[in-house]
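Researcher: Let's run the pair from yesterday's discussion. Sequence first, then tokens, for each.
Model: Starting with the first of the pair.
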Amino acid sequence: MPFMFDSTFLMLIPAIILSIYAQFKVRSTYKKYREVANQAGITGAEVARQILRSNGLDDVAVEEVPGTLSDHYDPRDKTVRLSTDNFRGRSIAALSIAAHEVGHAIQDAKDYAPLRMRHAILPVANIGSSLSMWLILAGFFFQFSGLFTAGILFFSGAVLFQLVTLPVEFNASSRALEQLDGYRYLHRDEMPFARKVLNAAALTYVAAAAVSVLELVRLLILRNSMSDD
């Protein structure tokens, strides 16, 4: 009986290395540009509210939340939540991340299809993440291919969520850069720095998707190597 951490695990190593690099890159890039003040002298909260107002989204709230890089947009209560550094900060990083989260609010208002799809997949992905490994482990150790296959199907939902997340995040960053440049919240010479911040953040999603896809391929290989008793 093959072991779960057999030679197929080697195929995950490049994606794991990419994931480690992505985490390092986003934190180092954020730390660097958190120390660079934007020339307009405005805070992340101010730019978020101004972009929302410019896009007719006065019903979307902007709130401060604790944590580092805990920024997100909650479509359930139409709220952009920014970590303290990005809510109060006047750095290029603060404006970039605030604009990115507002990008999600704009997506929501425009009924952006990939975002709508991600919301629809989320419950399945959450269940899949919780159940898949238990089913896969049970199927593997008892050599019951039915359980293993069920686990793969549940895990596929989580993989699909990771893949759908990519266009959502790329598009939000594109909208953020468009708003920051179009309304001159950042000067032209500051825009490359904002792009670096958002590209570093995007790399974490690419790495997560790569790990998930390769893990799915690995599980399919293991499934094909099983034999029912």
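Model: Moving on to the second of the pair.
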Amino acid sequence: MAASKESYVDRTVPKISLADFDNRIDAIASDIADAAEKVGFFSIVDHGIAATDVDQMFADSESFFALPSEVKTSVPWNAQNVGYEFKSQVRPSTGAADQKESYQLQFGENMRDLWIDDKDIYGFRSRSLAFMYQVQTVSEKLMVCLARALKFQDNFFVHWHDSSKPNSQSTLRLLHYFATPETDDGQVYHRAGAHADWVGVAFSNDCAHMADQPQGFLTLLFQRPGQSGLEICPGREVVTDFGHGDAWTKVDFTASTDIVCNIGDLLMSWSDDRFKSTFHRVKAPCEKGDNFGERYSIAYGCPKRRQLWYNSTNHAFASFFNQPRKDALIQGPKKKYPLVTGGEFTANAMKMYYAASKAATESHDQSKATPNLSSRVVAATA
């Protein structure tokens, strides 16, 4: 494969200890807020999840993806964002699918009939749920810190992420990226494009990195040391724009218990752009030193509830979901943006999605007619 022409720069991704949380909460909240403002990414340690539990979850993930295709497809993905999917994300700028498969797990009723059977992997459901509850507990600590930084009540965000609700939609996503050839075989390969966690900007270059930007609140990521690929590109200033910097930074994991956390678009908007939803990607390997082998990762996403008033004075009730209810009133604590309903918020996001997708298709058509066209284009995926 051709070498990347992109530039890289070293940046510090803050590492924050959650040790002695109750006694250090103000200091921890200050550190998290600082990282959320400046980078949009940070890693946490001393969070209470044992290395053995992380290793077991990775082992169960690998066992699942090693199952025959007919077994995995017996729990197919659906619109509730649960179940198994295989090479399902296709980049509009190239028509090529991401080289990955995934299995989305949730706590509540959406998982009915979508858990892999014990006869295929004994104890998978019980171990997965136990791990998910541990990650949810860590997530709630972060939510308290974020709420405190924004001058909300401590339980403000926790209230909207109650995993005990039957229709909770916080999601644990098991990911398996396929190995790719180290020599150029004429094919285009993608892993996961540059996205800032609903619609997005993407890049198409010699390494075929593409991007999307799904809406989200907060994501926690587990990765195996040595299975590199995660990169970030800060520089986005407002949630309504796709601005970003010019240089990427590789994010390395030193231990499987390190959890990398990133701010999503929803939280960026909720904070009136104080916290940054930073573009990031899993780079398709294309140069010496890249990881051409398999890559496994585990991501835990915290979307908001469906029925939601999200401003500084109103409170809400109901269930988790990836987009606001149509009658939700959306506005940050400082009211930076005009008040919009959930329906308007979603409609605006979809307009951006389709505009970006159309631009990607047009850019792809033009690049085929002009092979030496500049590599930067706009694109989006779901």
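Researcher: Give me one sentence on the second I can quote.
Model: The longest helix spans residues 342-369.
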